[in-house]
Amino acid sequence: MKIKFNGEIREVRSKRLGDIIEELGGAYREGCIIAIVSEKKREALKNEFSMKTPKGEAKIRIGREKEVKAMSLFHDVYKEFHNESGRIGWISEDITGIGPIRTNLSVEKSEYKYKKWDVFFGFGGFDPSMTYLMISKRDHEAAYGTGEDAVIGKLTRGRSIISDLREGDRIEGISPIVTKAERIGVVTTDLNTRIEEGQEISTFAKIKLFREAPMSSEHFLSLTRDGVFHIDDLSYTYLASEALKSLNLPVENISYRSKYYLSVRSSGSEKGKVYAYKESRLPHPSHNVFGEVIQGGDLMDYAHFGDSVHISTKPKWMSVVGKTQREAEEYLESEDIGQLREGNKDDNAVVVDQEPALTMDIMEVGEVKTIGVKKEWVFPIELFYDEAPKTVWYFKKLTGLINRPIGILKVHFSVPGMMVLFQGSADEAGTLVPENLPKGEVKKGILGVTNMSRANRGLMGIRLDDSKKYGPTGETFDGVNLVLSFSSLTPSTMSFLSKLKEGDTIYVKEKE
Fold first, then answer.
1. Pair 172, 184 in one domain
2. Domain containing residue 294
3. Digits of tens for pLDDT over the chain (512 positions)?
4. Same structural domain for residues 164 and 276?
5. How many domains does the chain fold into?
């Protein structure tokens, strides 16, 4: 039978969903939802069209009160309005014109009254070979070489978008809108689901990231580093992930949030929260628009709260931190990106940092510096997630473990044989309530953070000896939250830690 699988028409022998995925070798992630969509029987001609522009999506509704030649013509030629013929070629106070293309519409030189937001065909120089798709921006009377029969419909959405377009801007294309009323869709994780002839299956969503929002794109790549977008907030216009909420981002690419676009909040209590849109929204100064779902939109349309969506991105995440120098080289080569090794250049050295750090910058320059250190210099740690969740979040945010596999700790001060203190942030620790306070004795190898009850809040430290009186940052027990332990305290590890001095750096990763 024929089905549509991840955007392509395919012939399959199987009828069970799991067997079809295996038969076609399709991208699939266990536990992630799969969209299955059937289309109802519908009219041959659509009456609503989407016009995609650099500033967002506009919609045209075709009139049905009478059938005229221009309406049929529009259905024949709407696909031509792309590339050079998709440019804004004519702008005045009255109209915005897209094109031109060639048509065989008859010429009328008399004036005609156009209503605000009418969509119609008009000529340049009364020449049908210079036919524009025109949008009236106000009530007016003019002669565009055509008459009443050239009006095809109304602009129903995106009016401010059309008004913002300038001559030379290029629309990305016009396409018919298949409404939800014409499609029946569900999502499932049940691989035993039976599939019928003609159904559409989407196992993943492909997302194109925008170069205009490099930091926001990196935020999303970090959020979905495992190839999964977890939905923990949902409304009729969007679905969202709060996993990296509270992270700071600069203002980038404020624009229309069209259907299937993605944004991240850059300020406010929801900063760091990532949104994927099921319906178009106006621009907002706190939302950075950074990407678009270009395949698998059905997954977004029919997803539920708590679902997980398997995603792929274009480009891929170019972070190689945590890989060996050799692994980084192989990964970068596969994406045609050059590598320049620094620090420890051995094949088995661990990459602890890279320059540039952002994927979009890497794609621009085509090369990455990978800074390596000996494997023994990256210390495995065990974070106390259950006992100190707020402090764990603070620690991961400050060290970078929140969005990369290796964290960085910079030495602030050391007391030989007793403790090492690391740089923190008093501002970030302003709400760090006491949790997981020491009891009885603090063992060596335990790292703590000074909580909000003390002036030095946010300071991090590790004990090099056992203490029944003071915590890892030198505070009494009620002033420090215990956040992690070093997994292996060998004599060589203790010797390394005891020799640290102000300005030194150590690297940590979560124990596997």
1. no
2. 205-314
3. 999 999 999 999 999 999 999 999 999 999 999 999 997 655 444 688 999 988 888 999 987 655 567 888 898 899 999 888 999 999 999 999 999 999 988 899 999 999 999 999 999 989 999 999 999 999 999 999 998 889 999 999 899 899 999 999 999 889 888 765 567 899 999 999 999 999 999 999 999 999 999 999 999 999 999 999 999 999 999 999 999 998 999 999 998 898 999 999 999 999 999 999 998 888 999 999 999 999 999 999 999 999 999 999 999 999 999 999 999 999 999 999 999 999 999 999 999 999 999 999 999 999 999 999 999 899 999 999 999 999 999 999 999 999 999 999 999 999 888 999 999 999 999 889 999 999 999 999 999 999 999 999 999 999 999 999 999 999 999 999 999 998 778 888 888 888 999 999 999 999 88
4. no
5. 5
Q: Which single residue is written with the structure tokens 């979009």? A: 360
Distance CA 245, CA 267 (A): 10
Query: Nearest Cα to 261, choosing from 293, 214, 224, 236?
Result: 293
| DSSP states of 99-143 | EEE---PPP--S-EEE-TTEEEEEEETTEEEEEEEEEESS-EEE-
DSSP string, 372-428: EE-GGGEEEEEE-TTT-HHHHHHHHHHHTTTTSSSEEEEEEEEETTTEEEE---TTT
Q: Can you list the pairs that 500-505 forms with residues at least 24 positions away whose Cβ atoms lie under 8 Å?
A: 500/411, 500/414, 500/420, 501/411, 501/414, 502/411, 502/412, 502/413, 502/414, 503/410, 503/411, 504/410, 504/411, 505/408, 505/409, 505/410, 505/411
Rounded to an integer, what distance in angstroms lies between the CA atom of residue 200 and that of residue 485? 50
Asked which of 266, 283, 314 is the last residue of a domain, the reply is 314
Distance of CA 308 to the CA centre of its chain: 14
Where residue 154 sits, what CATH number does that domain have?
2.40.100.10
- Buried residues in 305-331 as b, exposed as e (16+ CB within 10 A): eebbbbbebebebbbbbbbbbeebbeb
8 A C-beta contact, residue 379 and residue 507: yes
- 277 and 385 in a single domain? The answer is no
Q: How far is Cα of residue 425 from the mean position of the Cα atoms in its chain?
A: 28
Last residue of a domain, one of 160, 176, 192: 176
295 and 393 together in one domain:
no
Is residue 320 assigned to a domain? Answer: no
This prediction has a pTM of 0.79
Residue 439: CB atoms within 10 A of its CB come to 8
Q: Are residues 472 and 369 in the same domain?
A: no
- Inter-residue contact 367 to 340 (CB < 8 Å): yes
DSSP-derived letter for residue 316 is: P
Q: Residues 210, 211, 216, CA angle at the centre, nearest 5°?
A: 70
Residue 319 lies in a domain: no
